[in-house]
Design goal:
Length: 285
Amino acid sequence: MHIIQSPLFDFEAFIREGGQSRLAGVLESLSAEKLIITLEREHWTGRKGYSMRGMLAALIAGIINQCHTTSDVVRLLKKDKGVRLICGFSIDDMPGDDAFGRFLKKLVRHAALFDECIEKLVAKLREDLPGFGANLAVDSTDIQAYSDGHRKLPSDPDARWGAKKKGISRSAEETGKKKEPDIYYWFGYKLHLVIDAIYELPMGFIMTPANESDMTQMQPLLEKIGADQEKTRPEAVIADKGYDSQANNTFVYQSCKAAPIIPIREFKGAQLADICNAKGTHLCS
């Protein structure tokens, strides 16, 4: 059993630690007992299978060691005796790709319990870190699916095509060359994140198909971490202009009682009197 310890590990010390120490620190801090008990209680047919606690620990070890697939996690278990020991597996009896695939399906069915684990960890961070959650940043990142989106029937039916503008290089900005940013396409999903902008630690996330607009996910993200609740309201919410909308600014200002720091989107030839110029730069009175 992983013992929950207090206080939480120091984040900078955590980064300096080796993989095994990081894994132990995460497992000791993550309150996942309810999720593990629920998974263990599910009916098994045939072979009993591997420990749910060990399977979850192995997946977390994979994230810490930058494993991109379950095959990478299996290779990690084979080569790292320390990780195997922490997860409770032996070299002669460890899960393979199929076992991790089945476990991931079970984990998805209990996504709400996994969210509870994250919520408890965020609540602990609020207690231990001064000002944690006062300044929030919202953004999204692309996650490519392991599926060919050009096929008529892709193997991942939930994945979609997404598009984003690539950033303009610094050299182009310095030389004053105006060039429309290139468009980047991918097939898969979007991970929408809200983080603490000072400690740079995630507080909540939502996964959507890649074609989902960033703009529509700001309010659900902030509601998910309780930013509209009196005890957990932030002071400021920072986002890029992809989140600029009247609904988002109103929600942040009125419901969260925070300052929305969101650049106004540029509209060619448009200018908002006494508010901004045609590039969306705010005018000071």
